[in-house]
Amino acid sequence: MVTTTTKLPANAWLDEQDIREWLVSLAETRDQDDLVMLEQACEMAFEYHKEGVEATGESTLRHALAVAEILESMDLDWETLVAAILHDVQLDDEPGLARIEAAFGASVARMVRDMGRMGFVNDAKGDGIPHKKNQPDHVENLRRMLLSMADDIRVIVIVLAERLHEMRVLKALPEAVRKIEAKETQEIYAPLANRLGIWQIKWELEDLCLRYLEPQAYKDLASQLDGRRADREAYIQNVMGLLQDKFQAGGINAEITGRPKHIYSIWRKMRRKDVGIDQIFDLRAVRILVDTVAECYAVLGIVHGLWRHIPGEFDDYIATPKANMYRSIHTAVIGPEDKPLEIQVRTYDMHEHAELGVAAHWRYKESGGKEDPKFQQRIAKMRSWLELKEEPAESADFVENFKTEFESQQVYVLTPQGKVIELPKGSTPVDFAYAIHSNVGDRCRGAKINGRIAPLTQRLQSGQTIEIITAKEGGPSRDWLSAHLGYIKTSKARNRVRHWFKQQDYEEHLHIGRASLDRELTRLGVKRPDLDQIAERFNFKKGDDLLAAIGRGEVSPIQIAGMGERPEPVEHEEEVAPLAAPPRKKRQKRISKKGAGEVTVEGVGELMTHMAKCCKPVPYDEIVGFITRGRGVTVHRRDCKLIHKLKDEDQVRLVAVAWAGESTENGAYPVDIRIIASDRKGLLRDISSILTNDEVNVLGVKSQSNRKTDRATMRLTIEIENMRQLSRIIDKVSQLPDVIDVHRLVQ
């Protein structure tokens, strides 16, 4: 059964004499300086809370002192106790916060302020914990929200102590309210105490929750336990003393801790295993920590030598760790008075891993599937502080360092319906709107924060309730995409806004894409490919979608212009050593002179071919072969003017030809390009520099200057490897100063 002790009088209302007597009772554990501060805090609380009353009928002052008394039992510092006594002072009177700071310092004032902000839970819970499909996420976000809002770790401890006292006096409320409060405590506050390792609060909260949620099960189980909890604790102390004597005699330095299993834990294990209480062997448990694995097994031998082992109740997780790398030895024995006793043996390193590492219980029981290394570190640091709280100076430094090092990177805000939304720190109402739904974000026109109109650029803080004001139709503003204006923090919101404008500007992008592709096709002198056929290769349904993608800059027009080209062989890429310097590029052989095998004639092998000088085809122009008299096959572009002018009797000499697969490896093809530019000194030198840097061979140059128009026209014959290289050369030359136009000549 849950039993509590208090030094406060039983009556709901306290007078000054009651307060003085309570302060005197603290003199056994507190020095005079602490008592002076606590007395001042009580005087201030008496002034503010004189008429205050809680829902249970208890005075607000007694409630505050009861919370402080719980913290006193945990040996927390005077600042924490003062903040607990005053945590409701500033809610109705903000100037009271300045008075607190003047009397007790900035740390106490900050804790009182943060306690005031914790009222968000009443908004988040609604009628108890919401029963939705996403309930685990909602509950986990509530826990994270609590942990993130507190700049000072001690605030969370005060919150847990306050909840514990509320649960102790919950029986004064109607049954329906008791169940709601108990469910909320079971889902949010008990897991928080578990994560922070505050076992005494965790166990009592869980037992009280079971008492109100499953009253008959609680009553039946309590009656089956042999003896009160105090008796079981005395039993554990006796066992620990026996073991310590044995270990000292054996030369083993061990740390022993023990605890009687609390009612909720017993009930949960009975349900999970579907067994009776007589099959639960860890009602009383002892944990032994040693330095080495060898000592673990030495301890095990001593334990089994003292008491008889219970068959089937032995697990060696040191030899065979669990999947989460949990390591320990578990055994159960018939201990003194013939009562079952569980013994756990592990090293200090194993214990740290079990409590704070990936094997920690709360990670797989309560985390809701979320993994956040920074968040885990924050909790680990909180638990570390609880171990240092006995050293006031060290503890104070720790708190300050914690605030700097582990400042929360997330904010947790509420919808008007109480749903918790997790966002990165620095998020705005626009980010919140898109987190709710993309349609809400698109139609967002304003926001209310805690019921007040706020700008869309305002940074959100944990605990705030956000309401989005929407229009019936319309879309986002382009200003939202400007980083310096500060409308958007999250990539999700930014991507949604871009997507909206992408859909709205389809026609404009289609026009831009068509013009870009036409310009590239003209420059390269190639025909337009069938866009509907190649659209699927770019994951588009039709050619217009592909053109719109070109207009948006998602697809390069050169990719489309060169679709006739085959991809370079994969083997060629794999031959290059990952860290080797690229070999010096060799001069390519001219296909017009040694082209055997570069162009294949259908149905004929080893036939001499050469490229026509009139149209100069390059891979992979559409081509056709013409059988000459004594010179083999001349390869022309299909749109070559000479081919179109052939007489009817010569048409029979045309043959089908195709580019060979290896041509891109060793071939170099002559191409004519025309450059029109304003005449200036050094123009030819600049063009030659580009061609030299790209290792392009120049076969011929013809230049004309018009003095009247001050224009220069150049015709260059160059050797290129493929269409991509040609496009690259044209791009570079066109970017030179005074260059007006660059394009390929096909005739």
Task: Briefly say what this structure is.
This protein has six domains: 16-213, Hypothetical protein af1432, CATH 1.10.3210.10; 229-371, Beta Polymerase, domain 2, CATH 3.30.460.10; 410-504, Beta-grasp domain (Ubiquitin-like (UB roll)), CATH 3.10.20.30; 506-561, no CATH class; 588-664, no CATH class; 668-745, ACT domain (Alpha-Beta Plaits, 2-Layer Sandwich). The protein is elongated, with a radius of gyration of 41 Å. The protein contains 31 helices and 21 strands.
Keywords:
five-stranded mixed beta sheet, Beta Polymerase, domain 2, Ubiquitin-like (UB roll), alpha+beta, Hypothetical protein af1432, 6 domains, elongated, 46% helix, 747 residues
Question: Could you please describe the fold and organization of this structure?
Answer:
- This protein is α+β, with helices and mostly antiparallel strands and 747 residues long.
- The protein folds into six domains: 16-213, Hypothetical protein af1432 (Orthogonal Bundle); 229-371, Beta Polymerase, domain 2, CATH 3.30.460.10; 410-504, Ubiquitin-like (UB roll) (Roll); 506-561, no CATH class; 588-664, no CATH class; 668-745, Alpha-Beta Plaits.
- Helix content is 46%, strand content 16%.
- The chain is built from 31 helices and 21 strands.
- Strand 4 (329-334) and strand 5 form a beta hairpin.
- Helix 9 packs antiparallel against helix 10, helix 10 runs antiparallel to helix 11 and helix 12 crosses helix 14.
- It starts with 15 loop residues before the first helix and ends with a strand.
